[in-house]
Amino acid sequence: MSTFVVFDLEFTSWPQALERDWGAPGQLREIVQIGALRLREDCTVIEEYEALVRPKVNAELSPYFTELTGISQQTVDRDGIPAEQALGEFLGFCREQTVLSYGNDMVVLGENVGWARARGEQIKHSFLDAAFINIRPWLNTVAPATAQANVGRLWNVLGLSKPASGQEHSALFDCYSFAAALGHLRSNGASLPEGCW
Question: From 24, 43, 77, 150, which residue has the greatest number of CB atoms within 10 Å?
Fold first, then answer.
């Protein structure tokens, strides 16, 4: 049975960070939450992965980030795991899979792996053990209504039932939104791009 993975990240942010491409001094895109789902070809969920991650450079979350994601400083301090552990677990979850994102989250993932390695931290699995693909351009072409939607709103703009409890900008909820959109498009005759499994 063929499977693939969809994933989403929540990472440190501040007002206007997106518009400035995180270009202000010290504003690194450090991962705070990872969500991922392993899916069958029909887009049903087999397994999920979720982790809260303690950022190292910007250990204090901005009020903007907390308001956007609902993730509090107290929650990250209590439940967050070290970046190298979360990255290794996630890359292990993705081993030998095609891994789809709705946007360039693999770039942020690569930045965080690079920073961890520069600090001398060991990452258990290699980035090269999986094939990462941004399928947002394909999805926006097949379903033009999604072009202005973030991943957590895909289910809504496609007129689907809410796919899980939670809200947008929660990494695992966003994955369920992504999976629901893919399943809907497949059931309506769309084929995922070549190489997705």
Answer: 43
Range of the domain at 126: 3-187
Residue 154's Cβ-side half-sphere holds a number of Cα atoms within 13 Å equal to 27
User: CB–CB of 81/49 below 8 Å?
Assistant: no
* SS3 state of residue 154: helix
pLDDT of residue 125: 85
**Mean of pLDDT values over 18-36:** 93
Question: Using an 8 Å Cβ cutoff, are 15 and 22 in contact?
Answer: no
Q: Is the pLDDT of residue 180 over 60?
A: yes
For tokens 């903007």, the residue is: 64
Task: Measure the CA–CA gap between 94 and 78, rounded to whole angstroms.
Answer: 26
Residue 192 lies in a domain: no
Q: Is the pLDDT of residue 171 over 80?
A: yes
- What is the CATH classification number for the domain harbouring 7? 3.30.420.10
Q: Residue 173 — very low, low, confident or very high, per pLDDT cuts 50/70/90?
A: very high
Q: Is residue 133 part of a domain?
A: yes
pTM of the predicted structure, to 2 decimals: 0.95
CB–CB of 166/133 below 8 Å? no
Q: How many domains does the chain have?
A: 1
Of 121, 117, 154, nearest to 136 by C-alpha is: 154
